[in-house]
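Progress note, sequence design subtask.
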């Protein structure tokens, strides 16, 4: 069977699995009189998407049942606008249908499987690309999360696009004239900027990649120009968002003003490694008309770093606990604690880890081939030793990691 036919079967299977998941999730939630499986974040995204669809101000006022609803301070810079913009587009077409929204998100998840195929082909060839895409298509975790009203799968698409562009810089043979590959750097910057608009946590990866690229390049002068173009494109691309935030808050906020509470969620005296934002309600800062969203963000940032400074041992222990929660093969949430749910997630994840380790060992002398695939997982594992850890935050990194796992399965070690 040709690679094209195999890919078509894989992508059709991926779409069918996700469409079935969308129907099952919608029916199950309706049966339980719920709208969302993970209500807090999903409700916020849904609300912002509705504001965009109706042309209303981009701010979180709170859905019914949200403890932060009807507070004095609206949250105007709480979320990056990438995923709410997609929801706004969907809602402008299908209305407020959650099933219709989940069906569109099923297509987004299928697109991620296709991008895995492209990246796998570029790094290791068609057989690895097909194997990795097939694994992503049938992965219960990736398929299930594809149809939730959360940003993980859209971010995975943007992340894979970023990796595809970066592969041109890292793995392709350089031109004989040694000129900077400005188009490749441009596309990498555009994809990175799009990824940041969906998930702000990717922002720190941009300069990190630029530094690593310069350090490992033989032609450092050319690599420096390419890295500068990459960083400049991201900076220019974020300017509209920064300008908008300046207008609504009086401060040039680069990403969001939810970073402070999120940081304090993982670094505070009562932290355990999982998210518990009850302190937001208990502190009552958002209900104080004398406060501002910017001031509250800075308050929690300062409190988190003060906790780290005064209790470094506890902070280090929390970092290990959060890293374990991020990498743990089975879910930590009580709502996914049934034996069959644990098994359904843990078995494929353990296979993924073992094969990815083998793939990294096989390609240990070709660092970019495994860094591109495993880099997102390593980056987010480090990031979530600071913020709270959860299987959910690992989802976008699993797509590219399946490429390394497929390489470990398909390839034999070579001298």
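Output:
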């Amino acid at each position: 069977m040709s690679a094209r036919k195999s890919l078509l079967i894989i992508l059709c299977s991926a779409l069918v699995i996700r469409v079935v998941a969308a129907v099952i999730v919608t029916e199950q939630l309706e049966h339980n009189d719920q709208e969302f499986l993970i209500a807090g974040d999903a409700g916020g995204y849904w609300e912002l998407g509705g504001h965009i669809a109706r042309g209303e101000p981009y701010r979180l006022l709170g859905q019914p049942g949200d403890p932060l609803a009807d507070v004095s301070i609206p949250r105007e810079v709480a979320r990056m606008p990438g995923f709410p913009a997609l929801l706004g587009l969907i809602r402008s077409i299908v209305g407020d249908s959650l099933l219709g929204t989940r069906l569109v998100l099923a297509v987004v998840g299928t697109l991620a499987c296709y991008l895995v195929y492209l990246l796998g082909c570029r790094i290791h060839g068609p057989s690895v690309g097909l194997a990795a895409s097939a694994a992503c298509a049938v992965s219960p975790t990736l398929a299930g999360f594809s149809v939730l009203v959360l940003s993980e799968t859209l971010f995975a698409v943007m992340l894979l696009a970023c990796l595809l562009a970066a592969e041109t810089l890292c793995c392709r043979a350089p031109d004989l004239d040694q000129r900077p590959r400005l188009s490749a750097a441009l596309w990498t910057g555009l994809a990175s900027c799009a990824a940041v608009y969906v998930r702000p946590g990717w922002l720190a990866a941009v300069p990190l990649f630029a530094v690593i690229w310069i350090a490992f390049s033989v032609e450092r002068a050319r690599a420096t120009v390419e890295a500068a173009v990459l960083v400049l494109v991201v900076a220019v691309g974020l300017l509209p968002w920064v300008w908008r935030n300046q207008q609504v808050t009086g401060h040039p906020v680069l990403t969001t003003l939810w970073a402070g509470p999120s940081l304090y969620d993982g670094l505070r005296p009562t932290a355990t490694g999982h998210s518990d934002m009850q302190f937001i309600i208990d502190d009552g800062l958002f209900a104080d008309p004398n406060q501002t969203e910017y001031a509250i963000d800075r308050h929690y940032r300062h409190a988190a770093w003060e906790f780290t400074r005064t209790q470094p041992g506890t902070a280090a222990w929390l970092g290990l606990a959060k890293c374990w929660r991020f990498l743990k093969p089975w879910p930590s949430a009580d709502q996914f604690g049934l034996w069959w749910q644990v098994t359904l997630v843990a078995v494929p994840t353990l296979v993924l880890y073992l094969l990815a380790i083998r793939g990294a060992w096989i390609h240990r002398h070709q660092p970019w081939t495994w860094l591109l695939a495993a880099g997102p997982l390593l980056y987010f594992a480090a990031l979530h030793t600071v913020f709270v850890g959860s299987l959910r935050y690992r989802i976008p990194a699993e797509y590219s990691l399946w490429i390394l796992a497929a390489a470990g399965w398909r390839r034999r070690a070579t001298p």
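The chain has a mean pLDDT of 91. Work on this subtask will continue into the next period as scheduled.
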